[in-house]
Amino acid sequence: MSSFKIEDIPIFWREKRKINKAPGIPNIAPAHLILDQKFGFIKQKYDPTISKILNKIYSQEENIGYLQDDNPLSKLYGTEFLNFITDNSNSNSSICEIGCGGCFTLKELQRLNYEVFGIDPSPISKEIGNNQHIEIINEFFPSKKIKRKFDYIIHYDVLEHIWEPFEFLCDISNSLTTNGKTIFVIPDSTDQINNGDISLFLHQHINYFTLSSISCLLYACGFNEINIKRSKITGTLLCVASKSNPTTNSISESDLKKAIDESLIFFCSVEYNMKRIQAKVDEITEKNNIGLYPPLRAIPYLSKIIIKKPERFFFIDDNPKVNDCYICDIPIPIKPIKETLKEKVNHFLVASHTFKQIMTKNIKSVKSDAKIIYL
Predict the structure, then answer these.
(1) Where are the domains positioned within the chain?
(2) Which of 14, 94, 255, 330 could bond 62 through an S-S bridge, CB–CB 3.0 to 4.6 Å?
(3) What is the rounded distance in angstroms from the CA atom of residue 241 to the CA atom of residue 215?
(4) Helices 165-174 and 211-220 meet at what angle, rounded to 10?
(5) How many CB atoms are closer than 10 A to CB 166?
(6) ∠130-71-289 over CA atoms, to 5°?
(7) How far is CA 355 from CA 13, 293, 294, 359, 374, in A?
(8) What pTM does this model have?
């Protein structure tokens, strides 16, 4: 089996001070994951309706990631990315960021004497770019408004959002100078794929890569000198690849088989694991309140239980930016950990593999005897 479908997973994409619907963006949409036989990664089956919804999301002032000045995680994620960029590039060179969001990375690279540019459809990117004197093309990549080539093209958490990643990377190659490189970061889905963990899913994430499958894809797109390393702190893959001479690379059968075999493990156990976790959480919430860090990709497959027992769930996050906000239309405000203790929260659910240590430390610092459930 190399397909898994759920008909009614909620779309979660923003935190707001008030619960209000966004025109053209429904609360629920199906999820259909399949295996890409050409390159060995897991992906969403193309759906024109989902594509239209996602384009609406990306064109609004939402969903621009961790790399923002007012996000506490920007230092953790941003410093790692900047160090990786500077280790694999030369300053005084031209560098373009696809999906530049709040221009966090471009501002730092500009300070380090890079010639910086950005492309992003979000109006907030254009506004910040103007304030920082950074040229931003307010469109999706590729764009006919790009009239030049760049020494480096970078992107952070972008490739997993692209319906046609092969064409996307080929367009990047065509936009690079002769010896140019692409430098980027994507989520590392290896552990979740190996464990058949549906929490990897988010409607906004079209593709789910392992080190093997992203290597196959880059090689097929004509890149060489591919170097990929796993982050020890952010649960990501940091990738750099050089533009090669015009040629069509052929993926070795053994490399492709390895990537496919890794991905097939997911489909063998995902349905069983999802139902097992749902049953366990349902059982716990019969008698207990649960504090839940709300990483968006964990909420969809728990949403039926949350909707059925909203009085049992308390969303927690010590990031002041999101305190008292609501995730889309769920009527549960996000609160700091200490405030949830007033509501007799005696169990905490950690649904993010990446932040397991950070979240556990935060919880134990305010309630040493907390019962922590790891999904």
Answers:
(1) 285-374
(2) 14
(3) 10
(4) 50
(5) 15
(6) 145
(7) 19, 10, 11, 6, 11
(8) 0.87
DSSP H helices, 246-288, are: 253-284
Residue-wise pLDDT tens digits, 319-339:
788 889 888 888 889 988 888
Tokens of 216: 């196959």
Angle between helices 123-132 and 104-111 (to 10 degrees): 20
Is 223 in contact with 244 (CB distance < 8 Å)?
yes
Contact 49, 27 (CB under 8 A): no
> For residues 346 and 15, what is the distance between their CA atoms, to the nearest angstrom?
25
Rounded to an integer, what distance in angstroms lies between the CA atom of residue 51 and that of residue 213?
23
d(CA 224, CA 160) in angstroms, rounded, equals 21
The residues, ordered by sequence, that sit 6+ positions from 136 with a Cβ below 8 Å of its Cβ are 100, 103, 117, 118, 119, 120, 125, 126, 128, 129, 130
* pLDDT at 49 exceeding the cut of 70: yes
Structure tokens at 3: 């397909």
As a whole number, mean pLDDT of residues 11-32 equals 86
- Region 285-374: CATH code: 3.40.50.620
Token pair in block for residue 308: 């059925």
Q: Give pLDDT, residue 69.
A: 47
Residue type, 356: K
What is the residue-wise DSSP string for 125-136? HHHHHHHHT-EE
Q: Measure the CA–CA gap between 173 and 180, rounded to whole angstroms.
A: 8
Q: pLDDT tens digits for 229-267? A: 999 878 899 999 999 865 556 788 898 999 999 999 999
